[in-house]
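Memo to structure team: turn this sequence into structure tokens by end of day. - J.P.
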Amino acid sequence: MKFLKRSLPVFGLLLALLLAGCGGKTPEQMLNNAAEQMESAKNVECSATMNIEYSMVGQSMKMQMQMDSVSFTEPQKAKCDMTLTIDIPGMGSQTQQMEMYVDEEYTYTGMDGVWVKTAMPDLETTETINAELYEDLNALLLANEPVSEEVNGVKTNKFTAVITEEMLGRVLGMMAGSIDSESLGMVTGMFEGIGEIPFEYWLDAKTDMPVQMRVDMAKAMETMLKNTLAQGGFGEIADIDVTVSAAELTMQYKNVNAAADFEIPEEAKAAEEIPLVQE
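Reply from structure team:
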């Protein structure tokens, strides 16, 4: 009996550890929980920063784009404030600000007090593309075990993946019915040979809510710039002097279901409509 009494605390500890292990979440469950929470969210705010460093024909440049966005599902609308800063050594820096709003019908873009609006593309096609992207990206993220990492004081599980050219090619193929063949050809040519794009995704370790994502697009952007210049008649790709040393996008999620509401300005709604694809 004494042996049993002394053993009970040990058995209790072992049982607690076993139960804790049984209640643990798999990486697939974490990602599914994250997707379900974001899909059911009524609103969310995001802050994103993109830093780009590149040189063209020996001239180096630095660019930073800061984006603060908020989106709602009922009704469907979104807002994004963007600040672009371009720094050219020896020439100083220039800053440009832009506002963008989206509703179920139009995208409204404003710069220096001038607004234009364009009709939204086929939402059914967009939803199909998003579903395809999610399925492909989910499979890529599950290929590697997540690791524990702290982000701004929050304990997270960090997932990593590599977005492939094949994956982007399938998405472009799905766009065939929503834009004209000439524009699709230009976009397809721009993405040709971009290779792999490293992708990182952090989920809150307790709630599985997305905390942050990061995409490294340096090599992809260099290839896209060269392809675009080649399409424009600036020479063969191998001869175009463009180097992108950094192109990193970092996005952080916040205020899920507690985002600040907004209204689309009347001057934006009254703006001149321009076609998404110019004739």
